Amino acid sequence: MKRLFFILLLLPCICDAQQYNYYSGAVADSSTRIFYQKMDGRLVWLTTEGRRELELLAGYFQQATHLGLDAKDYEPALVQAVTDNNWKMPAAADTFTMDMRITAAALQFFNDIAYGRQIKPPVRYDGLPLLPDKRTIIATELADYLMKDQFFSFLQAIEPADTGYLAVKKSIAGICTTLMDTALTEVPVTSLKADSSNTPLLLRLHQMGITDTLPGILHTSLQDRIMKAQQLFNVIDDGVLRSRFLQALNVPLSSRLQELKKSLN
Q1: Less Cβ around it within 10 Å: N or C end of the chain?
Q2: Contact 24/128 with Cβ under 8 angstroms?
């Protein structure tokens, strides 16, 4: 059965590269085929040896919200059920199907992190060469990290390293944590005072994850924190409070979270 699966993966595409190959009901696109070719056509996640990688993958998926993504886009029920040993796969073909589904979800997840979540297919222009399929790049890199037993560092390796991305990511994590607080109260910032007496300002910066401490115990310059928030909102970042900045600061956290997520994708 494994030999048959491998042969099917190696078969050249009879039709266009965008078409699919079917194996026992499983859908294998070009990136999935490349992944399994790199992995010698063997099961990856649903073996005793692959248990650790599967648990690492489940952990990565749990970070989806903090990465500006929606966890339900990546087969969360399937991955969690298999991780918890609650998924029965009586036939070998079913096992391959599940393994491929998990791989497809992993490739989509890591592609969305590295290149952003693409809702619509890119526009193609006649006469211009096609851009390389980024999912195949991710497939190759993922296989390489798995074979080198370095999957634990894969997420960090493919994440954008620019400061803007990291600032948005930190703010998303801060807001997510804040919204989980059942005692959350959003107090509007009305004062233009940029000092420690402006308690609503300090509280808001903390709620957004821009300061790591509660009002009254700031360990870094308040002006630096204000400037970071101003950069996040794309307003003049000089540490001076203005009405436009206060308007942005007072946007409900739930709405701000959605805006930040969109900015990463």
Answers
A1: N
A2: no
Closest among 189, 142, 110 to 36, alpha carbons compared: 142
- Look-up of token digits 């029965």: 88
Report the alpha-carbon distance of residue 4 to residue 194 in Å, rounded: 68
- The backbone torsions φ and ψ at residue 26, rounded to the nearest 5 degrees and listed phi first, read -85, 150
Rg (CA), the chain: 23
Cα separation, 11 vs 258, in Å, equals 43
pLDDT in tens, 157-190: 999 988 888 888 888 888 888 898 888 889 999 9
The total number of residues shown for the chain amounts to: 265
Q: In whole angstroms, give the CA distance from residue 246 to residue 251.
A: 9
Are 196 and 223 in contact by the 8 Å Cβ rule? The answer is no
